Amino acid sequence: MNIADTLADKxxxxxxxxxxxxxxxxxxxxxxxxxxxxxxQIECLPVNIAQIDRKTxxxxxxxxxxxxLSPIHGFNYPPIMLNFILRFPKGKNxxxxxxxxxxxxxxxxxxxxLTGIAFYLSALVLFLKGFSIKAIxxxxxxxxxxxVHPGLNNRTVKFLHVKNKERVEKFAHKIMQGKSHFxxxxxxxxxxxxxxxxxxxLAGRFFLAxxxxxxxxxxxxxxxxxxxxxxAIIKVDNRPFWTFNCESCMKCMSNCPRKAIETGHGYSVAGxxxxxxxxxxxxxxxxxxWFFPIENALLRMVIESGLSIAFIGxxxxxxxxxxxxKILERLxxxxxxxxxKWWGRRYKALKPDFNNS
Length: 357
Ligand SMILES: Cc1cc2nc3c(=O)[nH]c(=O)nc-3n(C[C@H](O)[C@H](O)[C@H](O)COP(=O)(O)O)c2cc1C
Ligand code: SF4
Ligand code: SF4
Hints:
Blueprint: H1 3-9, E1 14-19, H2 25-39, E2 43-48, E3 65-71, H3 79-87, E4 94-106, E5 109-111, H4 118-128, E6 132-142, H5 154-176, H6 194-209, E7 212-214, H7 223-227, E8 233-236, E9 239-242, H8 251-255, E10 261-263, H9 265-290, H10 297-322, H11 326-334
Parallel strand pairs: 1-2, 1-3, 3-4, 4-6
Antiparallel strand pairs: 4-5, 7-10, 8-9
Helix pairs in contact: 2-5, 6-10, 9-10
């Protein structure tokens, strides 16, 4: 398309992209969108929501296209983006919803990640605030969830980067010309993931927040504490300590210069075991004697979730204390899959302008 056609086709004067990114995938997508908007001479402002005051936002100017873009965490947008959308001022603007999610590669086939309820929930909230949803797009970038699967190799990362760049640029041209795009709605099975998304939001994310620890390789440089987008790491006993505020965005793990941050698979499994075979058993044994039997399934679920979160907090504090003993520290490190070469590659997105040619 030549430049005159491009300018004639432009549908907006201004675009604001509100994005969140842990390891750089969503940041890259924001940059790709912005670079296409420049071709249309549309003013484009990518805004990293972790770096702004999210409590005092002003309503967007009429006519501005608003894009919300974030990774998927637990089949939904992560809490930082969900809360941002919930607090976003009312308006009548057109809105595009985007996410990046876990892409993998089988041969030359990119397997799609799972968006879950992110689009449905956010579209509903924004619709009730007066906005109209113009397009949605899920982008299958390299998965950064190295707590649950081995890190992807360089070939896969490069392949996914290049393919997704082309795809996002094609989508961006459509958007800048004011067209709609709702192909993602074919993935109706996403709605079936709603119960897991809710469970992740209410309990799972708190569990994950307590799976990270700094090994003895940590030299206390403080980089992870400074760089965390939600200020979730504090110092306890003069060592990094992960609080329940952690969004599991993976930024700290991928940026630690000493590769000292691990996912504690060993102590997490031990914790689950202690909780189910000791804490819960004792709880029901004594609670039912002193008070009354809890027979309602929903009530049991709520009580058990609350108990498990409280237990995780105590368990993690205990593990953190035990880590000062060398032998226990080594045991914890060598029962962490992220320590091993075949699993433990860290993931950081390539530079947005990386080109494989
Ligand atoms: C805690 C966590 C949960 C995730 N949950 C999902 C998920 O439910 N579905 C999915 O497709 N990808 C999931 N992912 C993968 C990320 O969404 C994906 O790699 C994303 O592109 C990362 O973006 P970022 O680099 O901008 O942070 C998850 C990643 C993490 C760390
Ligand atoms: S970035 Fe790594 S080395 Fe630095 S304080 Fe954090 S865990 Fe320790
Ligand atoms: S502690 Fe690490 S994983 Fe958690 S939100 Fe901060 S940077 Fe992300």
